[in-house]
Amino acid sequence: MSRSEQNETPFFVGYLPVPKALVGFLAVIVGAVVGGGLVVAAAFALGQGGWGDASFKWGDGYQTRAGILQVAPYPVLYVAPDDDYPNGRAVVLSGQGKRGVQRRAEALDGKPTELAGIGLGRSEVGIEFIQVGGRVKLGAAEEGLVPAGWQGPEPVDLGDRTLSGELVDSKCYLGAMRPGQGKTHKLCANLCVIGGIPPMFVVYREVGDPLVMLLADSSGGPVPEAMLNHTSHYVELSGRLERRADLLVFKVDPASPRRLQERDMAHVIRLGVTVLLGFVLWQLWVGFKLDLVSYAGLERELRGTWLWDLRYSLIPVYAVLTLWVAERLAGLISSRAE
Fold first, then answer.
1. What is the pLDDT of residue 115?
2. pLDDT at 297
3. Phi, psi of 126 (to 5 degrees)
């Protein structure tokens, strides 16, 4: 190459103006890099699971309830039966912040009680929850607010059960935090349960809304501290299930928790499919030669074309597409296997 040809060849120098001949090329490269980054970011964002519509019900205003208060295993107010709730209604209670109401509730155990506060809830879970506080906090109910002679619901024994699900603190799960479940919420869940927030067990079902129940130990009291090791994990629990009004109470055997791998089959399948797809893409890139068929590879076919210059910029796009296909195939295979 002559000196004149070398002088005419465009060359990028960071501290000099970009040669016009390279502007289009750099625009394509920058666009591909930025576009690939946006695709990766969008894939991660869209791939996050939904946390439901759990929230404080500020729009409903200050809620007042009257009924029979029971403190075991955790403070719950039972409202007398009516047309909408023929078996009565349970209102799970907490204090403000990460505190329960056990100390204030002990003197009112089994007695007509009036309380008020702000409600929390999520649409797929039919559990009423109130954070007690405000003008009417927690005290003896005035005469007439609770039907005379009603002492609260009679527990209905539903038998021994072994269930798989996630141990959560009720307040965060029902709306105080988003997410109020999962491993990222473990520390917060433990602090809430230690502070007296009632723990609950969430049984996720393939069809329908999750089944949520209040946890107790085998004698009907608060769960032991060792249960904190299992919060925010997918575990198997065994115990006695009963219904009080519209609330399920799961009396758990303290020795029964067994840690499960979250969707272990789907994880194994997803990993296998990802490795397989990666191997197939690599063979398509470098080429292969078999007895009956051979292929030179995309590397040779694209060399010298404009796509060759974008090969590194498009790696994030290839990776996202590979993971997306692997996710869909793993879900399809695991659903068929189940």
1. 92
2. 79
3. -90, 50
User: Which candidate, 219, 244, 212, places its Cα nearest to that of 70?
Assistant: 244
pTM above 0.70? no
- Which pLDDT belongs to residue 7? 56
Point out which residues pair with 139 in neighbouring strands. Answer: 114
| Amino acid, single-letter form, for residue 192 | C
pLDDT value at residue 338: 47
Distance separating alpha carbons of residues 90 and 75, to the nearest angstrom: 10
Pairing state of beta strands 138-140 and 112-122? antiparallel
Residue 73, preceding bond cis, omega within 30 degrees?
A: yes
Residues in the chain with pLDDT values less than 50: 1, 337-338
Per-residue HEC secondary structure of 224-235 comes to CHHHHHHECCEE
- How far is 224 from 218, CA to CA, in rounded Å? 10
Across the strands, what pairs with 231? Answer: 167
Among the listed residues 323, 315, 155, the one whose alpha carbon sits nearest the alpha carbon of residue 244? 155
User: 244 Cβ partners below 8 Å, 6+ apart?
Assistant: 70, 76, 78, 90, 153, 155, 156
**Residues 159, 251: Cα–Cα separation, whole Å:** 10
Of 58, 80, 57, which is closest to residue 68 (Cα–Cα)? 80
| Cβ-proximal residues to 319 (8 Å cutoff; 6+ apart), any chain | 40
The three-point CA angle 147-150-154 to 5° equals 145
Provide the 10 A C-beta neighbour count for residue 338.
8
- Alpha-carbon distance of 195 to 192, in angstroms, equals 5
Upper half-sphere CA count for residue 108 (Cβ side, 13 Å): 24
Burial grade of 314 (CB within 10 A; 0-12, 13-18, 19 or more): middle
Element containing residue 191 per DSSP (H, E): helix 186-194
Residue 175 DSSP code: I
Q: Which residues, 6+ apart, have CB-to-CB distance to 313 below 8 Å?
A: 29, 32, 33, 36
Please name the residues in contact with 234: beta carbons below 8 A apart, sequence gap of 6 or more.
Answer: 164, 165, 166, 259, 260, 261, 262
